[in-house]
Write a structure and sequence with these properties.
- This protein is an alpha/beta fold.
- It has one domain: Spore Coat Polysaccharide Biosynthesis Protein SpsA, Chain A (Alpha-Beta Complex).
- It contains nine helices and seven strands, in the order βαβαβαβααβαβααβα.
- A seven-stranded mixed β-sheet has the order 3-2-1-4-6-5-7, with helices on both faces.
- α1 packs parallel to α2, α6 runs parallel beside α9 and α8 runs parallel beside α9.
């Protein structure tokens, strides 16, 4: 029997070259209302701008923030896996550092897990119409999500969402190995293969452009396809 942990939300924030937004993200995570206590684990993935200093300054002001520094950039997946090892929460959430997603939305997303109605909650950017989202973003996400549904019999609308909230014991038990953005399909596949109850709730987001710092590229889509196929047909756990 899994030991029942006291309610605590562990928020992992992977960060790479986000000096313009990271202080605001952390401030929001500290001040938003949540239905349970929080800890914030920020992982600086080898940033080359002022991100490291901004993180250390924020951590010096609040005991709720802990910071881990990677010497070299390893990718979002590596940063998430590092942060996950430091979590203590009964619930784990992922928050990007770019303010595309307002942290205030976490309060509603944790509720189904907190009530025991879901093992994981995905904040879907596409459950409702999002006309402001670039066409290529919508197309790429829809293609990967539908491919996931086809392979695994799921009914997801946004497999690639950053907002993945999970039971803490479940999240820490996933044998994740991805280093880059393919961590998103890897988490999803691991949850689906375990029969986890995934609930989707709509979220709003403000997508940014490549010029504004968007880091994911078209080649990351091919890595995602590779993860989905290998886990389905090659016996990868």
């Amino acid at each position: 029997m899994v030991a029942r942990l006291p309610p605590l939300l562990s928020i992992i924030v992977p960060v790479y070259n986000e000096s313009a937004t990271i202080a605001a993200v952390l401030e929001r995570l500290l001040t938003i209302e949540l239905p349970l206590p929080r800890e914030i684990i920020a992982v600086n993935d080898g940033s080359k701008d002022g991100t490291a200093a901004a993180l250390d300054a924020a951590a010096a002001k609040s005991p709720l923030i802990s910071v881990i520094h990677h010497e070299r950039n390893g990718g979002k997946g590596m940063a998430l896996r590092t942060g996950l090892l430091r979590t203590n929460g009964s619930i784990v959430a992922i928050q990007d550092a770019d303010l595309e997603l307002d942290p205030a939305q976490l309060a509603g997303l944790v509720e189904p897990v907190l009530r025991g109605e879901a093992d994981a909650v995905y904040g879907s950017r596409f459950m409702h119409k999002a006309p402001h989202v670039p066409l290529m973003t919508r197309f790429g996400n829809a293609t990967l999500t539908q491919f996931t549904n086809l392979l695994y019999g799921s009914t997801l609308t946004d497999m690639e969402t950053c907002y993945k909230i999970m039971r803490g014991d479940l999240a820490r038990s996933l044998p994740l190995v991805s280093n880059r953005f393919e961590i998103e399909p890897e988490i999803t596949v691991q949850l689906l293969k375990r029969g986890a109850r995934i609930v989707e709730l709509p979220v709003t987001f403000s997508p940014r452009s490549k010029a504004a710092g968007k880091k994911i590229r078209w080649r990351d889509g091919w890595h995602a396809v590779d993860i989905l196929v290998r886990h389905k047909f090659s016996g990868v756990d």
